[in-house]
Amino acid sequence: MPYPYGIVSDTHYHNWSAFASRDGEGINTRLRIQLSETRKAAKAVKAAGGDTLYHAGDMFHVRGSIPPSVLNPVIETYRYIIEELGIRVIAIPGNHDLESNDSNFVMNASSALHDVGVEINAEPSLRVRKDGSKVIMIPWFNDIGDLKAEMEKWADPEADCIIHAPVDGVIPGIPDHGLTPDYLGGLDYKRVFAGHYHDHKGFGNGVYSIGALTQQTWGDVGTKAGFLIVHEDKIEHHQSDAPKFVDIDATTTKAELNSVVTDNYIRIKVKITKESQIEEMREQLMSMGAKGVVINSIRDNTATARTGATVQAGASIQQSVNEFIGLKAYARPEDVKKGCADVLSEVA
User: Fold this and answer.
1) How many degrees, rounded to 5, is the angle at CA 84 between CA 29 and CA 51?
2) Domains in the chain: how many in total?
3) What's the order of all strands across the beta sheet hosting 292-299?
4) pLDDT digits (tens, 9 = 90+) for 269-323
5) Same domain, 262 and 213
6) Strand, coil or helix: what is 327?
7) What is the C-alpha to C-alpha distance for residues 343 and 78, in angstroms, rounded to an integer?
8) Triad 92, 145, 202: Cα angle to 5°
9) Residue 15 DSSP SS3
């Protein structure tokens, strides 16, 4: 039986500002968590009897710029995975890795890991593992039509296929691009695994959205983050241990609060009658184990006799931004929305 293998995607290594600081070694604390999760994925591959970890794109977060304080810890992590654990790492670039619109080696940020042994697939390619099993890897294509042409050209019923592309139906509310689960499932592949969208989802026809390794911004609220272990006859999703981004409101019960607040980043939208309530709520949530708290407050001038806070069900800044983007004729509105969500999370 072929060895199992692992897949990670959308790691988005970055010097995060929201809820982050520098540890004793000068490494961003949230980057440290991401690298720890990467090591966990590689160790899970080895424990399962596998020897290969595939990366399905968006290794880095900021297009066209990798500061040394991000690059060096990432290099050391993959050096450990390859040299100490003995795990082969094979990667394709995602759109966040590219300085150009389409993939090539020179303008691909993940190519910086080539010298430590990460095998970079800047062009579509076939990878054959030592047990004879085959994986087709197809990097980011800016044009869905070009991607489809490549997928059809490389189709092989004995091969799994790993891509970085927007699959329709993964994230509610994002416009379709014509890359449907039915289309992907109808191609002559054994299975198709897609990076790009940050939620893990299986469509029941051999097509899977891998999901991000960790949740990274408020745009990831409610998504399933983690990595995959792929066996001959089953797919295992291993949930991330990294903090999640969680929204709470007036409908959140005390029992739910106790289960979601600890070790997570919490955002609450509330009406207040006095400014002191903001710090009271923050202190309460932090005392319950929250890793960070964002409070979006609105002054409630009609509740002067009330001392408690209630949720304001108004539109958030992100919703307003999304509505504005929806009125514009952007070629890739979902990428614009995602970029805006990243910016908002950084200033929260």
Assistant:
1) 105
2) 2
3) 245-248, 265-272, 292-299
4) 888 778 888 889 899 999 999 999 999 887 766 644 443 444 333 445 666 676 6
5) no
6) helix
7) 28
8) 60
9) coil
Nearest residue to 191 (alpha-carbon basis) of 143, 156, 220: 156
113 and 206 in a single domain? The answer is yes
Relative orientation angle of helices 29-47 and 68-79, to the nearest 10 degrees: 20
pLDDT digits (tens, 9 = 90+) for 80-122: 999 999 999 999 999 999 988 888 888 889 999 999 999 999 9
Q: Residue 128 sits in a domain of what CATH number?
A: 3.60.21.10
What's the number of CA atoms in the CB half-sphere (13 Å) around residue 278?
10
Last residue of a domain, one of 239, 265, 283: 239
pLDDT band per the 50, 70, 90 thresholds, residue 344: low
- E strands within 142-224? 159-164, 191-195, 201-202, 207-209
Domain co-membership, 230 together with 94: yes
CA atoms within 13 A on the CB side of 317: 16
| DSSP-derived 3-state class of residue 257 | helix
Residue 256: enclosing H or E segment and its boundaries? Answer: helix 254-260
305 and 233 housed in the same domain: no
**Long-range Cβ contacts of 237-240 (<8 Å, 24+ apart):** 237/200, 237/211, 238/40, 238/41, 238/44, 240/37, 240/213, 240/214, 240/215
Phi first, then psi, for residue 55 (nearest 5°) are: -115, 120
Do 267 and 138 lie in a common domain? Answer: no
Domain containing 326 equals 245-347
In a shared domain, residues 99 and 160: yes
Alpha-carbon span 41 to 53, nearest angstrom: 8
Backbone angles phi, psi at 280, to 5 degrees: -60, -45
Same domain, 220 and 259: no
148 lies in the same domain as 95? yes
Question: What number of other Cβ atoms are within 10 A of residue 181's Cβ?
Answer: 22
Single residue among 239, 268, 292 that ends a domain in this structure: 239
**Are the C-beta atoms of 77 and 28 separated by less than 8 Å?**
no
SS3 assignment, position 343: helix
